[in-house]
Amino acid sequence: MTETNPRVDPPMAADEAATLTAFLDFHRSTLAVKCEGLSDDQLRLRSVPPSGLSLLGLVRHMAEVERYWFQEILLGKQFTAGHYWSEADPDGDFDNVGTADVAADFATWRAEIAAARRAADGLPLDTVGKRLRHGREVTLRWILAHMVEEYARHNGHADLLRESVDGETGE
């Protein structure tokens, strides 16, 4: 991956939708920054044994998460398998990075982000998703807040992974 993805600080005075969206975009960009400048092999490294986490695995996982929350829960689409997982291989997003096509995986992640943005564009935060999650309704507000949390948690993992690969640290 060679694309530069600069982060934009979220506004300190904006409405709720703009704030949630800006924080989510900030965290999406943070994951991209953590992966910038590394070779395909470095992105595949499982750098914190015994964990199977890798930077590429995090990108693949977040592509699945974007798809799940915005396409399946918000829009009600149904998929029989993920981009990287199946019922027979539920952790394929993390596990199968050894021979993965890094450029294709980053393109999939970026495409899922674009699709998520289109799915949420213009919808009120109180919009209820078309599919239930564990028998309960989920609003777009909750999805956006959850996505911020999901990225923030995994960006913490990405910090550790990146530091173990080449010593780079940062926000």
Task: Give a short overview.
By secondary structure, the chain is an all-alpha fold.
What would you say this structure looks like, in words?
The chain is an all-alpha fold and 171 residues long. The chain has one domain (20-166): dinb family like domain (Four Helix Bundle (Hemerythrin (Met), subunit A)), CATH 1.20.120. It is 56% helix and 0% strand. The chain contains six helices and no strands. The protein has helices at 16-35, 40-44, 55-74, 92-95, 102-120, 140-166. The longest helix has 27 residues, at 140-166. The mean pLDDT is 94.
How do the strands and helices of this protein lay out in sequence?
Blueprint: H1 16-35, H2 40-44, H3 55-74, H4 92-95, H5 102-120, H6 140-166
Question: Level of helix content?
Answer: 55-70%
Total E-strand runs: 0
Order of helices and strands: HHHHHH
CATH class: Mainly Alpha
Query: In the CATH classification, which architecture applies?
Result: Up-down Bundle
CATH topology category name: Four Helix Bundle (Hemerythrin (Met), subunit A)
Average of pLDDT: 94
In the residues, how many domains can be counted?
Answer: 1
Alpha carbon gap, first and last residue: 20 Å
Main beta sheet, described? Answer: none
Helical run tally: 6
Shape label: globular
Please state roughly what percent of the residues sit in beta strands, choosing from under 5%, 5-15%, 15-25%, 25-35%, 35-45% or over 45%: under 5%
**What's the CATH superfamily, by name?**
dinb family like domain
Q: Uncertain regions: pLDDT < 50 for 5+ in a row? A: none
Classify the secondary structure makeup into a structural class.
Answer: mainly alpha
Report the C-alpha radius of gyration, rounded.
16 Å
